[in-house]
Design a protein that fits this description.
CATH class of the domain at 8-17 and 127-268 and 334-375: Alpha Beta
Radius of gyration: 29 Å
Number of strands: 5
Number of helices: 16
Helix content: 55-70%
Structural class: mainly alpha
CATH superfamily of the domain at 8-17 and 127-268 and 334-375: P-loop containing nucleotide triphosphate hydrolases
Strand content: 5-15%
Distance between the termini: 90 Å
Strand order of the largest sheet: 2-3-1-4-5
Shape: extended
CATH topology of the domain at 8-17 and 127-268 and 334-375: Rossmann fold
CATH architecture of the domain at 8-17 and 127-268 and 334-375: 3-Layer(aba) Sandwich
Largest sheet: 5 strands, parallel
Length: 411
Amino acid sequence: MQAATLTAGRASAAAAGGRPAAVAPRRHRAPTTSGRAPVRRPAPPLRGPPVRGPGPARAGEGASPQQQQQQQQQQQQQQERAPTGAAAVSAIAASAAAASAAAVSAAAADPSSSSAPAAAAAAVDDDFDLLSNEIRRLTDLLGAELRGCSLYLVGMMGSGKTTVGRMLANTLRYAFFDTDGVIEAAHGGRSVSEIFAEHGEAYFRRCESQVLQELAPYKSLVVATGGGCVSNSKNWGYMHAGVVCWLRGEPALLARRVVADGAAKRPLLAGAAADAADNADADAANNAANNAAFASSAPAPPPLSTPADAAAYAAALSRLQALLEQRAKFYVTADVQILLDGRTEGDRERGAPAAVVMHRLMAAVAERIARTREEREARRNFTIEYAEGAGGKEGGDQEQEQQQQQQEGQN
């Protein structure tokens, strides 16, 4: 079968689910199906879980005219007292900073606790209102600092690159692309597993590199890449047009996620998962003692209902550990690293929620921008040799020549 040709128009059509672009987009804008810049819709505010139950009575429902007037006056007074505009933003930022400072102070006062940054981060993860405020603050900060610089998410399978990337793009008002989704759309909607089976992994990696090459010139993108794209050095040249973010998770956590999502969807795990499922029933009784010994030394898997699930987890864990050992030397070259572990009690088994991971990513990018700025300023402050002497370096050379001539004359 002839290989499908990917273009920027095909890539944009894959993301939008439409036909290829008729007019090539400009270089400084994100590709779209119409050739024009995408419509920037405001990101929806983060909301907590819906509260069920009867809500407050509306003004005028079952109330006398005097009660209605009193309710209206109370609402007007509340609106006058509530800060608006810049005052509201300042109040939110001040409350977030105060909460973070309180967490840091508590960690510093207790030597037995974790470090101050870890305590502050845990406080943000555990408080939804504080997390929302911090995300709003970082959104405003990165909007001014990034200036349209694209973000590329890398990591092993199961790290949540697509989920976090889509949420991040919506928050920053960027366009989102998933390289796997673009390749699937270019092949008539066939899945990655089917493309692997028909053309092989080498062909899929070439398509992946072409997608990154097509997307590299554009700005304001969040790109979720495949787990193996980091193995190709050419891909790093494309991704370093933006900021490369490694979503870093432990193999045990990734294995739990992959098994829950279905290992058959992952072409690099499909064979191992199938073999493990076929042999699970026959080996369940014989391997009971070995599994107990393994559980005492390895991360404990989640409660699995069937032997096939337990075997799939063991196979996925072994395969992910081998893949991570091969790719770790590439992942560590990313610009920022974001841990996926859950800091709260409810998130230790399944990892941090997507919103928490997005907040960590945004904070890491902001910290990297600040550190880069400091390094540039430090490089500007340098001293020139002999600058405080007579006439700079040239004057110092003349003094040395005069001293040499005097010594030769004395001799």
